[in-house]
């Protein structure tokens, strides 16, 4: 490694680490551990799940209960974390 490579390695931002979670029981690969609720829904839709931006996203917590994740919520995900995305109610 040259001196230039060392300086570049020290000043380069960390590279994203893709991580796989589940959305509605299906695997979804996310670009990094730090994502928003909207990014999770967009990734699920882009990977073929019938999920769009209007869906309500929830994350399963340790006690088995689900907690709503808003589009702008920044969360740190871990491998195999479970999410549930449900379509909005249409009471018209």
UniProtKB/TrEMBL annotation:
Pfam families: Multi_ubiq. This is Multi-ubiquitin domain-containing protein. Residues 1-24 are annotated as: Disordered. Residues 20-86 form the Multi-ubiquitin domain. It comes from Streptomyces incarnatus. It comes from the Bacteria. InterPro entries: Multi-ubiquitin_dom.
